[in-house]
Every structure is written in structure tokens, then in C-alpha cells.
């Protein structure tokens, strides 16, 4: 009886009589973010462009980032790094449909990306016994079964983004070696070598390193422009003020560093928490929860344009005419040419990242 019912529903779906689920069924969110409630429980939230929360779905532990499926209202929420699980959530029905568990000897770094057709999920991972970054490959249609793993091109891969109109993956190899027995202790700061790698079908097709004097600048978070340029935010592991915390790269080209004064660099306290490109690719915004600040850069001139204070700010994403930010205080902020809008949610504390859908 149950098999017949499934076949009947499948037939209706095939004929188009039953519409396929869309993000409209989850309130038409534009972004995803993890958060914590006053009672200490954790949730994944949908947020629309008007700063409204469209849904809350429970998480088993603290979240870091998420990945939105490109074709259906489904999200993968990743545990705060270093974590060993990720959960797949049907955001319309509000149910957990699968759990990804890191294989023995691996842990997740809190980020992932889907292939262009949504058939595969890629996760950044640490092979901590050999101190090498890996990319896990998961088959979505089979219930997120792990089918392969690839070399990430470096140590400590954190963020991962797919380049537009391709399945080339940009990977932020932060260069920092860690091990579960040492918690979050950084084991190789004197010798770290962060890089930005590009991976296609399991092959590292390009890897670019920072200049030697910047080798303690861990490449952590990525943003990709509509043209495929990659902006990267860094976290300084050295002494004093870093020379830069934001860089640019295009596949086949050279790295370019964004410029700011030593005082502006000091304001960020050596830490970029999130980075986002404007929709037109002309500007970049970066956040620092440690510095409690936001900075905006002009891509063409490589110069800083503006900065402002926002307490405990971290999440950042672009909208059709500006940017939206999230903070651990529960604040949502929207910045557009028409002005600024703020919305405070006393019952929520936003976690690290704001993910566009």
C-alpha cells in the first residue's frame, strides 16, 4: 500500500499536477543564518530582504554556516568548527532529512557548497592525523552518502565557494594545522602557508600563496563576484598590525591586496569574520566581531571607502541594492543608498554567517 502511494505521488509530480516544493513554502527567505535562543537551544533561521524571520528550524548543536540547495528548499547546516556533523533540513516541512557524519580521522570546518546542478555537496574537512585539508564529496540524491574525497590543495580549508556557471571550487586553505586532542590550539603558526586553491573534479588546477611576509595571514572566508573574481578575508596570526586583511584574485591572475591605514587595520583587530561582494561586483564589505566593525572597499581602486561600528557583527551578504549584516546582539542591519535599517531580535543571537539563497 505504501509503495503504491509513493508511486502515485511520484506520478503526479512527474505530470506537474503536484507542484514541486519551493522556498516560497518556507516564507520566501533570501538568507539563512544559525542562531541561539534564550534557553540555549540552537536554530537555523530564514531571513527575508525586509529583515523578517520567515522560519526557525531546530539544530542539535551550535551552527556555523549553511549551504542552500540551488533547486529546492533544502539546507545543510554545519556544526561550529571543528565539528563532526552536519544536518540536512527540509526548510518547508521543518524536518531533518539526513545527517552527515565526518569519517574517522576527519572533522568539518563549518562550510560547504553544492554543485551547480545540486547533485553533489562539497565539504571542507581536516585529515588531522596527517595535517592535510580534504574536500568531502556527498551524493545528494542517495541521501547525502559520501562517495569520494579530494585534496583541498593545502592545510586547514575553511570556506569553499563555487565559481559562477561552473563546478570549479575556490577553497580558502587557512594554513593552520589543528588536532582534536589539542582542541582549537593552532599547531604550526611559525610555518603556516595559507593559500587559495581552485579544485575541479578532484584536481587542484591552481593554487596561489600570499607573499612570504604575509604567511601568517590565514585565508578564511570567501566571496565570489558575478564575473568569478574571488575576494578573501583573512585572520592575522602574527604580531603587530597586519598589512592587509582583504585580498582579491581571479583564476589565472595575481593576488591583489586591499589597502587601508594602520589605524583602520588596527580597528579590525586582525580578524575578518565574513566577506561579501556587492551585486554589481564594484565593492566589498567585511566584518569583524572582534573589532566590532564593518569596512567597505572599492574593488577598482583597492582602497577602503567607509567604515562603521557595529557591536559583535559577523554575518554579511549582499542584497539587490546594498548589504545586510547580522550580529551576536540579535541585530539585523540593512545598508542601501536609500538609508540604513535596523531590526533587533531580543530572543535571538545570530551566529557567524549569513548565507544567500
Describe this structure as you would to a colleague.
The protein has 357 residues and is mainly beta. It has two helices and 28 strands. It has a four-stranded antiparallel sheet, with no helix packed on it. A four-stranded antiparallel sheet has the order 4-5-6-7, with no helix packed on it. Strands 8-9-10-11 form a four-stranded antiparallel sheet, with no helix packed on it. It is globular, with a radius of gyration of 20 Å. The model has no long low-confidence stretch (mean pLDDT 92).
End-to-end Cα distance, whole Å, is: 37 Å
* Succession of helices and strands: HEEEEEEEEEEEEEEEEEEEHEEEEEEEEE
Q: What count of helical segments does DSSP give?
A: 2
Which word captures the global form?
Answer: globular
What's the number of extended β-strand segments? 28
> From the structure provided, what is the oligomeric state, counting identical versus distinct chains?
single chain
Sequence of strands across the biggest β-sheet:
3-2-1-28
Instruction: Work out the strand percent.
Output: over 45%
Question: What is this entry, summarized?
Answer:
The protein has 357 residues and is mainly β. Helices cover 6% and strands 49% of the residues.
Amino acid at each position: 500500500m505504501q509503495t503504491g502511494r509513493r508511486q502515485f505521488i511520484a506520478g503526479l509530480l512527474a505530470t506537474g499536477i503536484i507542484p514541486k516544493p519551493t522556498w516560497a513554502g518556507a516564507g520566501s527567505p533570501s538568507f539563512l543564518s544559525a542562531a541561539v535562543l534564550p534557553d540555549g537551544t540552537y536554530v537555523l533561521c530564514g531571513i527575508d530582504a525586509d529583515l523578517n524571520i520567515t522560519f526557525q528550524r531546530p539544530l542539535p548543536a551550535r551552527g556555523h554556516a549553511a549551504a542552500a540547495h540551488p533547486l529546492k528548499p533544502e539546507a545543510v547546516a554545519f556544526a561550529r568548527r571543528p565539528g563532526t556533523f552536519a544536518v540536512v533540513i527540509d526548510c518547508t516541512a521543518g524536518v531533518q532529512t539526513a545527517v552527515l557524519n565526518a569519517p574517522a580521522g576527519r572533522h568539518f570546518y563549518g562550510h560547504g557548497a553544492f554543485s551547480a546542478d545540486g547533485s553533489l555537496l562539497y565539504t571542507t574537512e581536516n585529515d588531522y592525523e596527517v595535517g592535510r585539508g580534504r574536500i568531502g564529496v556527498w551524493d545528494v540524491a542517495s541521501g547525502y552518502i559520501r562517495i569520494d574525497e579530494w585534496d583541498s590543495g593545502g592545510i586547514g580549508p575553511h570556506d569553499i565557494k563555487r565559481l559562477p556557471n561552473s563546478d570549479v571550487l575556490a577553497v580558502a586553505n587557512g594554513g593552520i594545522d589543528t588536532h582534536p586532542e589539542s582542541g582549537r590550539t593552532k599547531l604550526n603558526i611559525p610555518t603556516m602557508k595559507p593559500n587559495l586553491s581552485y579544485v575541479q573534479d578532484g584536481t587542484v588546477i591552481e593554487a596561489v600563496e600570499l607573499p612570504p611576509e604575509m604567511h601568517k595571514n590565514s585565508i578564511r572566508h570567501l566571496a565570489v563576484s558575478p564575473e568569478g573574481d574571488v575576494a578573501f578575508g583573512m585572520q592575522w596570526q602574527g604580531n603587530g598590525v597586519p598589512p592587509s586583511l582583504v585580498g582579491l584574485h581571479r583564476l589565472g591572475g595575481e593576488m591583489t591586496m586591499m589597502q587601508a591605514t594602520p589605524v583602520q587595520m588596527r580597528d579590525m583587530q586582525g580578524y575578518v569574520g565574513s566577506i561579501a561582494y556587492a551585486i554589481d561586483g564594484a565593492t566589498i564589505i567585511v566584518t569583524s566581531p572582534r573589532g566590532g566593525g564593518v569596512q567597505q572597499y572599492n574593488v577598482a581602486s583597492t582602497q577602503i571607502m567607509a567604515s562603521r561600528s557595529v557591536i559583535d557583527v559577523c554575518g554579511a551578504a549582499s542584497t539587490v541594492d546594498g548589504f545586510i549584516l547580522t550580529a551576536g546582539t540579535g541585530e539585523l542591519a540593512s545598508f542601501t543608498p536609500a538609508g540604513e535599517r535596523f531590526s533587533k531580535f531580543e530572543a535571538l543571537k545570530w551566529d557567524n554567517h549569513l548565507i544567500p539563497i
